[in-house]
Amino acid sequence: MSTAVLPPDFLWGFATASYQIEGAPEQDGRGPSIWDTFCKIPGKIADGSSGDVACDSYNKTAEDIALLKETGAKAYRFSLSWSRVIPLGGRDDPVNEKGLNFYVKFVDDLIAAGIVPMVTLFHWDLPDNLDTRYGGLLNKKEFVADYTNYARVVFKAMGSKVKHWITFNEPWCSSILGYSTGLFAPGHTSDRTKSKVGDSSTEPWIAGHNLLVAHGSAVKVYRDEFKQKDGGEIGITLNGDWVEPWDASDPKDIEACERKLEFSISWFADPVYFGRYPESMVAQLGDRLPAWTPEDKALVQGSNDFYGMNHYCANYIKHRTGTPEPEDFLGNLETLFENNEGKAIGPDTQSFWLKPHPIGFRKLMKWISDRYGKPTIYVTENGTSLKGENDMTKGQILEDDFRVEYFKNYSQALADAVSQDGVDCMGYMAWSLMDNFEWAEGYETRFGVTYVDYTGGQKRYPKKSAKTIGKFFDALIKKA
């Protein structure tokens, strides 16, 4: 039986991202993002689709808010399309008032409905013009200046209303999937069968560094110009999976587990909390990791008011011997789904990478809390796909017991981390409010607690998980 251990002001709700749900790519003056461009390249998206329509949330905000109210959600994390706010993206380019006002009104409507807005400034959809103009994330001077300007425009428009800000969503994905494997926009990779441009051995580390500096710069603007009068908080959201050794008796596998966490999480969190990159990365990458100038270090170190945590699953980790490949980004190791005894880390889902392992959530929360001095954590994404869900009948899809079980186990793991491990967690946003455009997987993979009928006018139908997740949190949150 669950015990109420979470604080009375704990925020639970759902998360989405602009390109995955909004549609309306040209409506009211929006400019193209790198994802609009990437989706047009044959073979990049599993089903050849794009976010052109998606859930049509740009035109269905009232439906989305009604859905949130129906679930009992206390908060909603959503992202802004930078190219909707500043179509060409740059600091000297015009602001699109219609696009900006769309978000201001949406925030007003959420607040009027009693739902707390949590705003992500950047969830991967860079204005395409900035990529073509100067190389996007690879150009530190230009990118940092343009992002900082964009952030200031948004803070000015809605800083008095929004109290929870996220600068970047999962910079690991932007850097590695965008500039190493080429699976995500803009698709850079050393593999010339996939892209004419890219250097997987250097570009991801440059992109990651520039994202950190841009984060620090935006945080400085918020703290210097808005925080005192608006009273909000700001941080960055980092993704990370839990790790267990492939061979629990092999010290090298145990050591590789720590290295995997450092290459995925500490790559960004160590600079934010300690002003430096982890030693394991410096040892492997050397001068491919950009050096910290005193100015950049001053911007980045201490730049989190909270830690944004995205988490889904776990892996077994097996060390590798010998010299790592130049394009290696894991830390000279393998990530596996079965250990040396053939035991699976978790059940299969529709996503090849996602095997649920709830105890790993608790363990990772403690690892983050211990390493970074007990920061306040907001879980900004957590959820699962369901094997074969897209091929089921609508009736079967609505009975998503596997997802219900996932949320039950993960919410309990979070509660245990708080009550038994002393973790400070103040929020949880389930991924996702509704089925949506799942990036390179297109529409074949569904993560929503709401079924979206893509051929029936994007009509929304709440699944069983939409109706039960609130009950789990009601039981875990102390009454004021």
Folded structure, characterized:
The chain is α/β, with parallel strands linked by helices and 480 residues long. Helix content is 40%, strand content 14%. It has 17 helices and 13 strands. The chain has an eight-stranded parallel barrel, surrounded by five helices. It has a three-stranded mixed sheet with strand order 6-8-9. Strands 12-13 form a two-stranded antiparallel ribbon. Helix 7 runs parallel beside helix 9 and helix 14 packs parallel to helix 16. The model has no long low-confidence stretch (mean pLDDT 98).
Number of helices: 17
- What is the string of SSEs from the N terminus onward? EHHHEHHEHHEHHHEEHHHEEEHEHHEEEH
Overall mean pLDDT: 98
With strands numbered from the N-terminus, the spatial order across the biggest sheet is 1-2-3-4-5-7-10-11
User: Rg to the nearest angstrom?
Assistant: 21 Å
The dominant shape is globular
What distance separates the N and C termini? Answer: 20 Å
- Share of β-strand residues: 5-15%
Helix content: 40-55%
Class per helix and strand makeup: alpha/beta
Describe the biggest sheet?
8 strands, parallel, barrel
The number of E-state strands comes to 13
Spans where pLDDT lies below 50 across 5 or more residues: none
